[in-house]
Amino acid sequence: MERIATRVTALLGTSYPIVQGGMIWVAGWKLARAVSDAGGLGLIGSGSMSPDLLREHITKLTSATDAPFGVNVPIFNRHADAFIEVCIACGVKIVFTSAGSPGKYTARLKDCGVTVVHVVPSARLAQKAAAAGCDAVVAEGTEAGGHNGFEELTSMSLWPAAVDAVPIPVIAAGGIVDGRGMAAALATGAEGVQLGTRFAVTVESSASEGYKAAAVKAAEADAKLYLRRYMPTRALVNPYVRQAMDAEAAGAATDVLDEIRGRGRARRGIFEGDAQDGEMEIGQAVGRIGDIPTAAQVVARLVSQYVETIASLNNTIGSSGVGDQQQLNRTDT
Ligand SMILES: Cc1cc2nc3c(=O)[nH]c(=O)nc-3n(C[C@H](O)[C@H](O)[C@H](O)COP(=O)(O)O)c2cc1C
């Protein structure tokens, strides 16, 4: 397959500007390895691990592949300090930070020669990440699965705004499942894509079979944003999510929502496949997922459909044909 070269592939050392998002209960060393070996960048999602388990996953991944890989560290996580030190001690070269201030760990990581990419939900926060010294940002629209920004900016509004706001490369996320989405993202000026939902529903994902089966069945409107004023999260609607949404609509205070949420919801939903009471974090793109391929198949499809899409768009430009016809119609009216 062709290589696709952007500043993101140069920064990450990959063949394709495709990143598999770090995901709690989904992205262990096996998924990251499959994506990295296929020419993208696989990320271990540390958010559902202990520091010791993260070390174990990094060690296994390091001995399983020579391809570049990274680790996602959610900054609000209680183990974040330890995760950062484990990454440095294990010689991890790329860290994607998310959900917190990019000022917190960027300098420490950069001092140790680590490439730092920060996930942002707005152009304003992309500027903050650039000012903190990050090498790139992931601009994630509200379509995305998992925790979201309060701004609820859609991908098509966010991606070009982020591109215009910062000199560093932008990786687009939120709603991309195929090569058409990837072409749309790169057309806005983004230089890479990060996919979560699509990679969560693959053979190597450590999500439960129940989660994967529910995703294959779901339509796009089944992935709801809830806890919008407190901890915006996009997940498959089910009795638990509906209960929390009803409480929110009735004006429930944060401590009441906190109690409804309780502990371990994401584990139950994603890892144990509890479709009634678990939180199955997933994005709107779930509506276009109809199978459970390998991660390598996902990467191959993305690349070939991206190439086809660009070729077909090129065919729309010319001195005769559709373009002229549209011009004629406009002149007629
Ligand atoms: C099940 C699941 C868990 C996620 N966990 C995390 C996480 O721990 N850290 C993070 O930065 N993003 C997390 N995300 C977001 C993804 O990394 C990615 O940015 C997002 O899914 C992209 O949008 P998409 O779902 O439309 O592809 C998660 C997404 C899903 C679906």
Could you give a short description of this structure?
This protein is an alpha/beta fold and 333 residues long. The protein has helices at 7-12, 29-37, 51-64, 80-89, 106-111, 123-131, 155-165, 179-187, 197-200, 209-217, 239-249, 254-261, 265-271, 295-314, 322-332; strands spanning 18-20, 41-45, 69-74, 94-98, 115-120, 136-140, 146-147, 170-173, 192-195, 223-226, 233-236.
Verbal overview:
- The structure is a single chain.
- With about 325 residues, the chain is of the alpha/beta class.
- The chain folds into two domains: about 220 residues, Aldolase class I (TIM Barrel), CATH 3.20.20; about 80 residues, no CATH class.
- The chain is about 45% helix and about 15% strand.
- It has 15 helices and eleven strands.
- Strands 1-2-3-4-5-6-8-9 form an eight-stranded parallel beta barrel, surrounded by six helices. It has a three-stranded antiparallel beta sheet with strand order 7-11-10, covered by helices on one side.
- Helix 3 links the parallel strand 2 and strand 3.
- The longest helix has 20 residues.
- It is globular.
- The C terminus is likely disordered.
- Flavin mononucleotide binds next to strand 3, strand 9 and helix 9.
